[in-house]
């Protein structure tokens, strides 16, 4: 066993190191984790460079985590913004010296303010910088770094706010291994008298409006439809009790939780998903291929969740309902029309599916290594 470990170490050293810069929400962390897993499989060493608040990859202890200073400056007072900029500057200096020591083949940034120090450090250290954008709108941190990057990789074919003259490549959004294993799962049988499984997921910021609207909308449906429904809904802890009470007057079978640890299974079993349209949720919907009613978070930067949702709508895989129009009556009307003609759901599931999703992580590895090889002249 020791001999194998030594050989693996040597192999990693020979092949080189890739540094990933990510932090914050799952939209940034999940694709970085998917790339890290594939890089490790190929024998490369992987280092995660993040800020003090950034989460490390929980599933992999083979990845070295280096933390530097960094802070978001949006939504702060003038003094707060100045302080945040000073921390980002300090984090950039720290990143520069970390990268000079590691000598990575390339640095890959996944957006969010946690990626700025590492991205700027890579530029100063003259190490190839690659940007991965998870949303249909290039994020603010990625816009800042785009002109310093060798390549911007997009998750959507149409990505707005990309600066002119920037080299881009559409590769897609890699998903976690748990999701990849369920990719393209057959759509569950849906007869006129059978059960209808609904999965409601909203994330930490956006679950409240779903908690307010969905139970009331279910109560407005005809009883014969309610009796067919099996609903799994994610709620914030503070909303669980009131959501439970709201469902009491309905005929639906309901499971509520603050967190589901088997989301891939629940998505595969779902006939319909009601969700926000953040990057990670969208990638998982595309990977498994499920119809969705999407309610974009209206305070998302640059309204990127609406752009994400529009991509699914244009594919014919779902329906977009803006927050202002997301009322119990409007949702109930939408649900009743879908459940009365289940062929629409089946067709939408087929349209939502992106068949090559499990291959996206491999394509991302190839793209990253191609940029690294250009630098080495190989």
Protein model, in words:
Helix content is 47%, strand content 16%. The protein has 378 residues and is α/β, with parallel strands linked by helices. Mean pLDDT is 90; it is low at 1-12. The two termini are 33 Å apart. 49% of the residues are buried. It contains 15 helices and 13 strands. The chain has a seven-stranded parallel sheet, with helices on both faces. A six-stranded parallel sheet has the order 10-9-8-11-12-13, sandwiched between helices. The protein is elongated. The chain has two domains: 2-174 and 358-376, 3-Layer(aba) Sandwich (Rossmann fold), CATH 3.40.50.2000; 196-352, 3-Layer(aba) Sandwich (Rossmann fold).
From the structure above, extract its key features.
378 residues, alpha/beta, seven-stranded parallel sheet
Structure summarized in a few sentences:
The protein is of the alpha/beta class. Helix content is 47%, strand content 16%. The strands form 2 sheets. It has a 7-stranded parallel sheet with strand order 3-2-1-4-5-6-7, sandwiched between helices. The chain has a 6-stranded parallel sheet with strand order 10-9-8-11-12-13, with helices on both faces.
Helix/strand/pairing category: alpha/beta
The dominant shape is elongated
Q: Taking all residues together, what is the mean pLDDT?
A: 90
- Please tally the helical runs, counting DSSP H or I stretches of 4 or more residues: 15
Query: What can be said about the biggest beta sheet?
Result: 7 strands, parallel
Strand order of the largest sheet: 3-2-1-4-5-6-7
Number of spatially distinct domains = 2
Q: Find the CATH superfamily of the largest domain.
A: Glycogen Phosphorylase B
Strand content: 15-25%
- CATH class call of the largest domain: Alpha Beta
Tell me the series of helices and strands, N- to C-terminal.
Answer: HEHEEHEHEHEEHEHHEHEHEHEHEHHH
Count of extended strands:
13
CATH topology of the largest domain: Rossmann fold
Terminal CA distance reads: 33 Å
**Helix share of residues?**
40-55%
């Amino acid at each position: 066993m020791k001999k194998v470990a030594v050989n693996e170490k040597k192999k990693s050293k020979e092949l080189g190191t890739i540094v990933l810069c990510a932090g914050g929400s799952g939209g940034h962390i999940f694709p970085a984790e998917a790339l890290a897993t594939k890089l490790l499989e190929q024998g490369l060493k992987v280092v995660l460079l993040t800020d003090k608040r950034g989460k490390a990859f929980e599933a992999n202890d083979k990845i070295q985590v280096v933390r530097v200073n960094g802070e978001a400056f949006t939504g702060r007072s003038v003094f707060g913004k100045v302080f945040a900029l000073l921390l980002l500057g300090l984090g950039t200096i720290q990143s520069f010296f970390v990268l000079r020591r590691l000598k990575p083949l390339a640095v890959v940034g996944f957006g969010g303010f946690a990626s700025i120090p590492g991205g700027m450090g890579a530029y100063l250290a003259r190490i190839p910088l690659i940007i991965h954008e998870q949303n249909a709108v290039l994020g603010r941190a990625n816009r800042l770094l785009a002109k310093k990057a060798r390549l911007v990789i997009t998750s959507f074919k149409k990505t707005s706010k990309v600066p002119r003259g920037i080299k881009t490549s559409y590769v897609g959004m890699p998903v976690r291994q748990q999701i990849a294993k369920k990719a393209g799962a057959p759509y569950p049988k849906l007869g006129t008298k059978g059960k209808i499984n609904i999965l409601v997921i909203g994330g930490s910021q956006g679950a409240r409006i779903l908690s307010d609207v969905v139970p009331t909308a279910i109560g407005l449906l005809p009883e014969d439809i309610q009796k067919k429904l099996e609903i799994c809904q994610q709620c914030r802890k503070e909303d669980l009790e009131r959501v439970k009470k709201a469902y009491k007057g309905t005929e639906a079978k309901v499971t509520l939780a603050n967190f589901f640890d088997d989301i891939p299974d629940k998505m595969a079993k779902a006939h319909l998903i009601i969700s926000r349209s953040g990057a990670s949720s969208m990638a998982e919907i595309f990977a498994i291929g499920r119809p969705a009613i999407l309610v974009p978070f209206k305070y998302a930067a640059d309204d990127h969740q609406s752009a994400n949702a529009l991509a699914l709508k244009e594919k014919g895989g779902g329906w977009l309902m803006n927050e202002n129009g997301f009322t119990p009556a409007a949702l109930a009307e939408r649900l009743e029309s879908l459940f009365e003609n289940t062929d629409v759901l089946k067709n939408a599931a087929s349209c939502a599916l992106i068949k090559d999703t499990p291959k996206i992580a491999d394509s991302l590895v190839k793209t990253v290594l191609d940029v690294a090889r250009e630098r080495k002249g190989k």
